[in-house]
Design a protein that fits this description.
Structural class: mainly alpha
Largest sheet: none
Distance between the termini: 119 Å
Oligomer: single chain
Shape: elongated
Order of helices and strands: HHHHHHH
Helix content: 55-70%
């Protein structure tokens, strides 16, 4: 058996290095291919994003030109086409959901505030009228002092409001 020293092994390895893989890798070609793929990706993304914006702008400009053209026509010319001046936008744009303007939203807010105030005043007046009654008058209409708040607000069930009895399964009204 032969025995080689470490120095002998190093000398043999330097004479003829062992390569496990003789395939050569073209690193510069791989880098160039990666650059080309990256450029193609960014170009496609740029075209998709800005192409959609450009298409929407072109559609918007075409619609505005059509509206301007129709607004420039006389009522007689519009009537010949079956369009009135009030529905020019509908004729060009079709069924478009129109968002309410800020003034309309503010108006609705003020109206709902007034309706809420009117409802509150109505409840307050009803409460005051019922509180002004004595116990006999309240019992005539089927209320007690403890039932007044529930009767005015409409919340909660009253003791004798002709609902179906809890133990009655026939659905009869209890009087």
């Amino acid at each position: 058996m032969f025995s080689f020293t470490e120095k002998d092994l190093d000398a043999v390895a330097l004479l003829r290095p062992i390569t496990a893989n003789n395939n050569k890798i073209d690193i510069e070609g791989a880098i160039a291919n990666a650059h080309q793929l990256r450029s193609a990706y960014f170009t496609a993304t740029f075209k998709a994003v800005f192409g959609a914006v450009a298409d929407r702008y072109k559609t918007y400009r075409a619609n505005q030109n059509a509206i301007a053209t129709l607004n420039g026509m006389s009522n007689r010319e519009l009537a010949d086409m079956g369009v009135t001046r009030s529905n020019i936008h509908h004729a060009v744009l079709g069924d478009v959901v129109v968002r309410p303007s800020l003034t309309k939203k503010l108006f609705q807010l003020v109206v709902s505030g007034f309706e809420g105030f009117r409802h509150w005043r109505s409840q307050k007046n009803g409460y005051e009228q019922l509180m002004a009654m004595d116990a006999r008058q309240l019992s005539d209409i089927g209320l007690t002092r403890g039932d007044i708040a529930a009767a005015v607000s409409g919340k909660g069930l009253l003791a004798n409001d002709n609902y179906t009895a809890a133990n009655d399964e026939t659905g009869r009204k209890v009087s």
